[in-house]
Every structure is written in structure tokens, then in C-alpha cells.
Design brief:
Rossmann fold; four-stranded parallel beta sheet; 12 strands
Amino acid sequence: MPAHPRRRVAGLAPALVASIALLLAGCTSAGVTPTLTAPPLSPAPVADPTTPASPSPAIFATVTDDEGTIVEIPMEPQRIVSLTPATTEILFALGAGPRVIATTDFDDYPPEAVELPDVASYQAVDVEKIVGLDADLVIAGGNFFNDPNAIAQLRGLGIPVVVTYAPDTEGVLADIELVGRSTGLTGPASSLVASMRQGFDQVGAAVAGLPRPRVFYELDATSDIYTAADDSFIAEMIVLAGGEPITTGSPTDFAISLEKLITADPEVIVLGDAAYGVTADAVAGRAGWGVMTAVRDGAIRPANDVIVTRPGPRLVEGLRELALAIHPGAAVPTPEVAAP
């Protein structure tokens, strides 16, 4: 997922060549030329077909991560480092929590993860600390969420690193399966994905047939105004929740001008920045915002941006909350997500 405006929301087997040289050297003495006789050749050994070949070391798992890198995981990982809040939630949801030894300083869920050692911030990854913890698997975030140089360093030191990046809800489900394969928890991963799909379907059924209002999802408006970019994760979530997203007109830029927002005339404003103290009254009091339909109708509602935009197991809860913000009277059931 692209960086959040207020906070970031992005075996080698060496070849051995052996050469054998036979050097026959002699010396002359008193004009006598010595005769050099080559030793008899021994017959080449014949392999015994009844003797099994030595097995090559087994690989626990080989996966292709979201950046297309083929990652070999030599053994079932028991000391896992998670470098994104989403992958931390996935690991705990699959039952791998006891194997997670470190996370980041911005992990906030589940509570057990918060107490673990921090090995990364939004600015950097502490490679030395990860190595010192004897990690046998690192799960990182792509699209520059984690520093690519740090990922390359870890791989160069022999630590398997699986990079995840989910641009949409299908990507989230695929990443859950990827983490499951990487940790030996394919069964729990499949169960979680199935229950999340069911939850998405339940929310979709609840808003089917309802009017689809124009929705402005506010990420931040402390200086510039930030909302969903075209075809972004947030825009997709709004569609699934029964609304028509107002986007920036760019696939990568999350900023929108006030003039463009006024022209789009949102019918519902969802405050993803409510956790930072932004209220409906504050929005209604902004200069120029009073002409918007959502402001005139009082359709300004908060949402928990963490569960709406974090690509992890609680995404179904986020979709339900977003659907209720767009359609307050809808009979949206509480999804039940499978436990590991």
C-alpha cells in the first residue's frame, strides 16, 4: 500500500571448479638421460547400483514473494521477524505468534506483539539487531515500505526474507497464503482466507441494491487534502462497501485540490483521520467546505483507518465499519473470522 500521508501506510550455491595437473619432471646427471615411466593407471571405480546416492539437504519451503524473488527457507522457521504491522497481524492470526521474536516500533496489534523487541521504524531497519536475534525468517514490506538495501543485506547474510505487498483485497488474501506457506501453516491460512471471503460476501450482500453515494475518504487535511488515488486500495474498499469513491485522478498521487473536491461534491465524508482528533464539526467549519452536499446534510462520519486500510486479517472488520459509515441504516452483519 502506498505511504500514508500522515504515516507510512510501502542460497547461493557457489560453483566449485576442480582441476588436477600431473607434472612429470626430471633432471640430467653426467650426461645420462633418465627414462621416465608413467605409473600404471588404476581402473575407474564403478558405481554400485545398490548403494543409494547421498541425499541433498532438504529445503523446508520455496516461495515466490510479491516482488518476484524466489526465496528458499531451509528449515521450518522458529525465530520470525515481522517488519510490517500487517504481516505481524497475519502471523498471529495464523497461530505463529509464539515464533515471532521481533517487530517494529509502530506495531500496535495484537497486544502480545507490542511488547516484543523493536527492530525497525518507518525510517530504518536494524539489520545488526535482527542478525543478533538469530532470526531464521524475516517477512518484510514491499513498495519501499522497508528499505530495499536492508532487505538485500539480510539476504546477503543468509537470512531468508519474504517481501509482501498487497495492492488490493485479493493481494491481501494472497499474502496470507504466502505467509502460511513460508511458515508451514497452509491449513490455517486457507481457513482464514475462506472466512474472510465469506465476510466480504456478507458485507457486499448487505449493501447490494442500496444507493451508491459519492464518498470522500479523508486521509489527512492538515495542510493539503489527501484521499484515495485512482484504483487504490482505499478506492476498492469504498466500492466494496457500497459507495462511489471520489479519487484524485492519479494512480499514484493521493493529494486532491479543494476546488476538485468541491466539484466532485461528496455526499458522504468518511474521516479516516478521526483518530487524530478530526471531528465532523471541525470539517463543517472549514472555509469553502459548506457547499458540499455531505456537509449540508451532516453526513460526516468517522472510521478506524487502521482496520480499513491495513492489509491484514481485520480487513473484513474494516469493510463492515466503512459500509456502516456510508450506509448507517444498513443491516451489515458482524463477520466471523476463523481462529487458528
